[in-house]
Design goal:
By secondary structure, the chain is α/β, with parallel strands linked by helices. It has one domain: NAD(P)-binding Rossmann-like Domain (Rossmann fold), CATH 3.40.50.720. The chain is 41% helix and 14% strand. The structure holds NADP nicotinamide-adenine-dinucleotide phosphate.
Length: 306
């Protein structure tokens, strides 16, 4: 793998483009909103807390971006909120060039979303699955549109257990197991969505990205104990900053050379840091049977059909 330099300078002019970024108030989402707005896009900063969203917008506006930022509320742990967001969006906009499904949680203790899903699968996959399905008509109406899902190197340890997806029928809950499953689900969904677009002749592509190890708030739940806090301080020291970590998902969202079904990540050693390049995901993430199963179960659980 080469550490070729696709940087912020490679971002094309985005004037006329409409982009949604979930989790746009923090970390990689914040950096993505900033980069898109600086290059002229109309960006919808989607977040679960409007106050945090407005604060992020105010900060970004200080950099005098060429584009616009609109803050809209969506809580991916609540399907009613996802439906409301999609309705609101469609009442204001008739096109959507990029849906960047970035928001996520990691290593949380066991709890369930409002709709009764294990929180990490519910937020990282099912919420975004529902959101994408509800926005499909506008994506369909926008020539050359894209859906970008943010996965993780943690997908490599992920396993789909379709008999006990929510860890409630005897599978022992381990928080990183649940995170790995949700991040594997992000990739299975990406590849199935690409097959869906192709089979329906929809002029849209599905792409995935991961940020390696990036210094954000994501690991805050891992830092609950003093020992982990200490370890974390050391690990954070070698991580790349959020702006560089956001480059793979930014590239996946706007580089005109990107093709459907591709996966971008940092090009450095172990994909931990570096400029974004095409990377490979595990054979499990390319299991078409699991992808189909996940799609069917996600439609059933969310009530959103494609
Ligand atoms: N940082 C890394 O090294 C790393 C590595 C691999 C993958 N990733 C992936 O990168 C993505 C972004 O994470 P990050 O590192 O930027 O972490 P972050 O700084 O913690 O940002 C996560 C964002 O997701 C939002 N979010 C969480 N639950 C939500 C919900 N129910 N509804 C709507 N928004 C919600 C958060 O909102 P609040 O501010 O309200 O909490 C926040 O805006 C995630 O998908 C993560 O899995 C990150």
């Amino acid at each position: 793998m080469t550490d070729t330099k696709w940087t912020f300078d490679n971002i094309p002019d985005l004037q006329g483009k409409t982009i949604i970024v979930t989790g746009g108030n923090s970390g990689l989402g914040y950096e993505s909103v900033k980069a898109f707005a600086q290059n002229g896009a109309k960006v919808i900063l989607a977040c679960r807390n409007l106050e945090k969203g407005e604060k992020a917008k105010t900060e970004i506006l200080q950099t005098r971006p060429k584009g616009e930022i609109m803050v809209m509320r969506v809580d991916l742990m609540d399907l009613d909120s996802v439906r409301e967001f999609a309705l609101q969006f469609k009442s204001k906009y008739s096109k959507l060039d990029v849906l960047l499904n970035n928001a996520g949680i990691m290593a949380t203790p066991y709890f369930k979303t409002k709709d009764g899903f294990e929180a990490q699968l519910g937020t990282n996959h099912l919420g975004h699955f529902a959101l994408t399905g509800l926005l499909l008509d506008v994506l369909n109406d926008t020539s050359g549109s894209r859906v970008v899902n943010v996965s993780s190197m943690a997908h490599k340890s992920g396993k789909m257990d379709f008999n006990d997806l929510m860890f409630e029928k005897g599978r022992k809950f381990k928080t990183m197991k649940a995170y790995g499953q949700s991040k594997l689900a992000n990739l299975l969904f990406t590849y199935e969505l690409q097959r869906y677009f192709e089979s329906k002749n929809i002029d849209s592509i599905a792409v995935a990205a991961h940020p390696g190890g990036s210094n954000t708030r994501l690991a805050s739940h891992l830092e609950d104990s003093g020992f982990m806090k200490m370890i974390s301080r050391v690990v954070r020291g070698v991580m790349q900053d959020a702006a560089k970590g956001a480059l793979p998902q930014i590239r996946a969202s706007v580089d005109s050379n990107v093709k459907g079904g591709e996966y971008y990540g940092p090009g450095g050693i172990g994909e931990i840091a570096g400029y974004p390049v095409l990377v490979k995901s595990t054979p499990a993430s390319h299991n078409a049977e699991d992808a189909k199963k996940l799609w069917e179960v996600s439609e059933k659980l969310t009530g959103v059909t494609y």
